[in-house]
């Protein structure tokens, strides 16, 4: 049956197929940033252009932030799914929040007998953005999602997911003197009691995962959907808040805050507080 456990209690087997976030891609991205910074420094030295040094400094700051992502991808905690002979281990804590307590339940084991079906969903998202002249525009992003249809009671899993959201969006404790980084990245969600949704940003590709499940459960045809995160005007307040929360939990907190500012005429601080408060209320339900 479905079982919650700590990450340290997951049994490891060399035969398991492990799906993780790519370290190679992270290193490649870091090397590109280093090349840009060095190029800007050389250009500034040759042309005596102060703006080039400014660009190099900005890129260096980005590198300092990016290095956390790079190092996190080389930790043993960097995995999302373990495909075993008897079922799936799914880790719903983001690999970026590896510094959270290791005593929390962050993994769910799903026996194959409790997975009714699985399918790949390709979701086309229209998102708000700004062009070079700071005018409002839109961009298109495609997300790959794995939907697992469950047959067993998922109440305990829903509670564990809510607690994880609460940890991420909890207000900083006053008087502690320091707060650790909390990444608002939620790779696993439970939209309904029988639907577990996994955002696929890992390697190998989702087809490899589906191929591994063909002899254990029904693999449905790929589905293509679209989500509009730009045109909120015709929606009710409740529908707008649902979309904002969905955008934030998909990893685009900046986009969610920007849209809240546009919809409700908030300043930056008020919009950020509003979106985070939505997430806190969601975790308390």
Which helices and strands appear, and what pairs or packs with what?
Layout: E1 3-5, E2 17-19, H1 23-47, H2 50-72, E3 81-83, E4 87-91, E5 107-111, E6 115-130, E7 136-150, H3 155-169, E8 188-192, E9 195-199, H4 206-213, E10 218-219, E11 223-228, H5 237-249, H6 253-264, H7 268-284
Parallel strand pairs: 6-10, 6-11
Antiparallel strand pairs: 1-5, 2-3, 3-4, 4-5, 6-7, 7-9, 8-9
Helix pairs in contact: 1-2, 3-7, 5-6, 6-7
Describe this structure as you would to a colleague:
The chain is α+β, with helices and mostly antiparallel strands. Among the domains are: 50 residues; 116 residues, no CATH class. It has 7 helices and 11 strands. Strands 6, 7, 8, 9, 10 and 11 form a 6-stranded mixed β-sheet that branches. A 5-stranded antiparallel β-sheet has the order 1-5-4-3-2, with helices on one face. The longest helix has 25 residues. It is globular and about 65 Å long. It starts with a strand and ends with a helix. The model has no long low-confidence stretch (mean pLDDT 91).
In short:
This protein is α+β, with helices and mostly antiparallel strands. It is built from seven helices and eleven strands.
User: What is the beta-strand fraction?
Assistant: 15-25%
What's the alpha carbon Rg, rounded to whole Å? 21 Å
Stretches where pLDDT is under 50 for at least 5 consecutive residues are none
Oligomer: single chain
Question: What level of helicity do the residues show?
Answer: 25-40%
Summarize the helix and strand pattern as letters.
EEHHEEEEEHEEHEEHHH
